Amino acid sequence: MDFYERLSMRGVLWAHLHELHGNSFEAFFHDLMVLCVPGFVDVRTAGRLGDQSSDGLELFNQKLYACYAPETVDAKTTVRKFQSDLEGAIAKRSDQFTTFVFVHNDVRGVHPGISAALAKARNDYPAVSFELMGMRHFRDLLGKQDCQDVEALLQKQLPLQYAVAVGLQEMEELLADLASQRSPDAAPAPIEAVSVYKLNYSYLTEESQSELRYGLRHSAMISDYYERRIDITERDEVAARFHSEYLEAVSAGLEPEDVLLRLREFLAGNRVASAPAYRAQTAVLAYFFESCDIFENAPDGWMPQRQVITQ
């Protein structure tokens, strides 16, 4: 899928997952994994044997998947299901996996109780790795597939490529918080926060460089936001997506200004933003620019060329 197809797919997937629970979600998960992951084995129930505490096995990476997709999410019931599936998998398939993946249908992300259960399981079973899998992971897997295959899986044609208003749903809360902040409330960014050489080396226009510099005033707030998140992996996952989109834009031969625009659309879609929303988007881009997830640092010894004035 190309960039705009991936953008338009997000909203369709979001709406589709709201309709899936129980067996229908499990069937969707099986179809998605068979499409996207070589070596995935979709495990079905078989009489008295059941599924032996597995809804799928990934042979190459030794991952075991357990699905839970109730129509109404209840934290205590979800924790019990996680613990039951894990104990069953350890008892029946301990020699078949090294990573246990709990797959859920909650598009908002998991309840804090699940995070606590994961931490406990990690301590109880130190030889096993644990992962959660939900909406964001489905989106990233499908973004690597052909558009026709994704449309067949989602049972819906994707919207027109350039009529896209959906960005990263997990960033909406942060963008709203940033947009609501008055400029004087933000702390000034230290001069050394981003090397001036990196800004020059990016070959962005002076206007874009100035916007990124100003956006750094909100970096402390963004860092605090991620420190307070229930899902402690969210920041790294978002950073990895930004880095991947940046590399793809560069490999497509886009000019630096177009790369920055592509990343802005990846973050928030291509809807026209209000001034506060635009500043919030810029703050997020500046944050990931500062952490070197987007754009490259100047090589050691690199110096900006001096402009030679001739008369």
Radius of gyration: 22 Å
Largest sheet: 5 strands, mixed
The backbone outline, from C-alpha atoms, is globular
What structural class do the secondary elements suggest?
A: alpha/beta
Low-confidence stretches: 46-51, 189-193, 307-311
Tally of helical runs: 13
**Termini separation (Å)?**
52 Å
CATH topology of the largest domain: Restriction Endonuclease
* Average pLDDT: 83
Strand content: 5-15%
Could you give the order of strands across the largest sheet?
1-2-3-4-5
Helix and strand run: HHEEEHEHEHHHHHHHHH
Could you give the count of β-strands?
Answer: 5
| Number of domain modules | 2
Proportion of residues in helical segments: 40-55%
Shape-level CATH architecture of the largest domain: 3-Layer(aba) Sandwich
CATH class of the largest domain: Alpha Beta
Describe this structure in words.
The chain is α/β, with parallel strands linked by helices. The protein has two domains: 3-154, Restriction Endonuclease; 169-290, no CATH class. Helices cover 51% and strands 7% of the residues. The protein has helices at 3-17, 23-36, 75-93, 112-124, 135-142, 147-154, 172-180, 196-201, 206-215, 219-227, 234-251, 256-268, 275-290, and strands at 40-41, 56-58, 63-68, 99-104, 129-133. The protein has a five-stranded mixed sheet with strand order 1-2-3-4-5, with helices on both faces. Strand 3, helix 3 and strand 4 (99-104) form a beta-alpha-beta unit. Helix 3 (75-93) runs parallel beside helix 4 (112-124) and helix 9 packs across helix 13 (275-290). Residues 46-51, 189-193 and 307-311 have low confidence and may be disordered.
